[in-house]
Amino acid sequence: MASHFAIQFAVHQIRQGGVIIYPTDTVYGLGCDPMNLDAINYLYHIKQREPGKGLILLGHTLELFEDYIEAPSASDQKKITSADRPTSWIVSAKPSLPDWLTNPQRTVAIRITQHPVVSELCQQLNHPIVSTSANLSGKKTIVNALQAHKYFHDKVDAILIDDRHLSGQASTIKKLDTLSTVRP
Fold first, then answer.
1. Mind listing the pLDDT tens digit for each residue in 123-160?
2. Which end is more exposed in the chain, N or C (fewer Cβ atoms within 10 Å of the end residue's Cβ)?
């Protein structure tokens, strides 16, 4: 697992507007500060992805999203926090959330992570982190640190490693209001 020092370095890079690669619950992800438009644009650039395609915000607790989303009901909070597999939820964004994080319906995707590296990153940042799979748009997702280093070492500010096996399967995405599945 990434050392405490490596995580502190990644936090510093994010605070300085950097983009990092880090292990998530399922695959390696590209991440940055969600409120830094320059970092978001650079993330799209290195991923070779069109700006405006959806991004997910990861956090270790639901409370971390209070400044980003409309407060969910108690029953919706339970759905978000008790999914049996990594599930990203499309929820209503606060009006103050920047357009680059929402779609035209003013929703945003969030996920509560169970991964210790992401949890520590978010604890130290005291805010969620952007998450999109660490791969070139349309290419195979990255599931280990060697692949992350091979493809992105000269394009990102930090790469956090993990010795756990990542499934390589993207998270499920569901709409909270209808419980319909957007991505299985």
1. 999 999 999 999 887 888 888 888 999 999 999 999 99
2. C
**112: three-class secondary structure by DSSP:** strand
Domains along the chain with CATH numbers: 4-183 (3.90.870.10)
Whether the model clears a pTM of 0.85, i.e. scores above it, the answer is yes
Q: Give the number of C-alpha atoms closer than 13 A to the C-alpha of residue 115, restricted to the C-beta side.
A: 29
Reduce the secondary structure of 11-73 to three states and give it as a string. HHHHHCCCCEEEECCCCEEEECCCCCHHHHHHHHHHHCCCCCCCCEEEECCHHHHCCCECCCC
Task: For residue 59, give both structure tokens.
Answer: 């956090």
Q: Rounded CA gap, 67 and 169, in Å?
A: 29
Give 136-167 as a DSSP string: -TTSPPP-SHHHHHHHHTTTSSEE----SPP-
**Backbone torsions φ then ψ of 30, nearest 5 degrees:** -95, 135
Amino acid at 179: L
CB 14 within 8 A of CB 20: yes
